[in-house]
Every structure is written in C-alpha cells, then in structure tokens.
C-alpha cells in the first residue's frame, strides 16, 4: 500500500484527488495539508510514501516545502502536481529533490502510474516538461543534485569516467532525443544506444535518463569539449 499526502490550498482539489486516489486498490490517502508549513508537519507525523505537492500556497510555497521535506525526510518522495508549467518551477522543484512534476489536468491513469514509479525510485515528468527543466537549468544552472560534486566548475569524476561515445549519447539525452533519434544522429543501431544508456546509468548510479540529464546538464559544454575526457 502506497501512503499518500495531498498538499493543496484548494479544498475542491484535495477532495477530488482523494476520491480518485482512494479508488485505487494500492493507494491510501493518509492526510491533507493546505500550506507548505502544514505539509512539513504532516510528513513528520504521518510518514507518507509520496506527497502530492502544489506550487503556489500561502505561508510556504511548494518549492520551498519540497526542499525542506527532501532534506529532512529523504525517504518521502515528492510529486509536484501543479497548474503551472513554468520552466523555473519545474527545474527548481526537481533540483530541490522532487521526483516528478505533472500538470493537474493529467489523466488519473498517468497520475497513478507516476505515483507508483516514483515510489519505486524513478523520475517522472509530464509531457513537454522534460525539455523545460533541462532548458531552464542550462540557462541558469542551480546547485548540482549530488553532494559528491563539490565544485560545479569541475566535471564530476562519474562523468569523466564515461567513454567519448557515452558522452555523445548523454549529450543527446540532455537535448531530449529519443533512442531512435540518437541512433540516427550518431549512425548507430537503436540497440547500441540502449546499451550505452544502460552503461551511462550504471556508471552514474542513477535509475533513469531523466535523472542522468538533470545531473549532467550543468556540465553540458564540458561534456561536448573534445578534451574533457581523461583517457
């Protein structure tokens, strides 16, 4: 059973989500909150598996609440559920630890599957939001996701360990290309691309290509530089 906390300042939204989510056999809505401050209190009291987090709320907004919850309660996963697809909201939410970002008009099936995937440790972004997050980070890079990276001006050792071809594939992932598009642009088979992606995720110790893109995006120019790879 996946324990859920719904955070939204609009009563009708909370009630509607509760009805929809409680209808799923593997979901249990254990609490509700109307502000970011209440969300922190509820997470501490209820220990939900996944928090559905609104963005604009009084007292403390969803981005700040996401940052606090991810720092204090790392086992709790955050899925931002918002009416706003603003680039900065998406990027900052993900950088501060959210595992997913969906728009409120998403279908219940998409929302349910995203919750299950996030509970398993995967990252979920709604249609069109992946490129928004990457574009925003490239325009104004925020703090890197991993504490192992001490200086954002230096390429992390995990990225240095990638082969030149893996770096090329990773750059295309950051650009939002599919496996087929990567295969066509690099003149290799789609199966080879899948093998490279699997190797990249293994070397970076990440679960999926979204996490890889978010981690590597601040170092895109260095990844593309021909001499950035130690050999």
Short recap of the structure:
The chain has 231 residues and is α/β, with parallel strands linked by helices. It has helices at residues 11-22, 36-46, 62-72, 87-95, 108-119, 129-139, 157-160, 164-174, 179-186, 190-204, 209-216, 220-224, and strands at residues 2-7, 27-33, 50-53, 77-82, 100-103, 124-125. α2 runs parallel beside α3 (62-72), α4 (87-95) packs across α6 (129-139) and α9 crosses α10 (190-204).
Number of helical regions = 12
Strand tally, please?
Answer: 6
Overall shape: elongated
Percentage of residues in strands: 5-15%
Low-confidence stretches: 140-152
Give the C-alpha Rg. Answer: 18 Å
Helix-strand category = alpha/beta
Strand order of the biggest β-sheet: 2-1-3-4-5-6
Q: How would you sum up this structure, described in words?
A:
The structure is a single chain. The longest helix has 15 residues, at 190-204. The chain has helices spanning 11-22, 36-46, 62-72, 87-95, 108-119, 129-139, 157-160, 164-174, 179-186, 190-204, 209-216, 220-224; strands at 2-7, 27-33, 50-53, 77-82, 100-103, 124-125. The protein is of the alpha/beta class and 231 residues long. The radius of gyration is 18 Å and the shape is elongated. Strands 2-1-3-4-5-6 form a 6-stranded parallel β-sheet, with helices on both faces. The chain starts with a strand and ends in a 7-residue tail after the last helix. Helix 8 (164-174) packs across helix 11 (209-216). It is built from 12 helices and 6 strands.
Which secondary structure elements does this structure contain, and how are they paired or packed?
Layout: E1 2-7, H1 11-22, E2 27-33, H2 36-46, E3 50-53, H3 62-72, E4 77-82, H4 87-95, E5 100-103, H5 108-119, E6 124-125, H6 129-139, H7 157-160, H8 164-174, H9 179-186, H10 190-204, H11 209-216, H12 220-224
Parallel strand pairs: 1-2, 1-3, 3-4, 4-5, 5-6
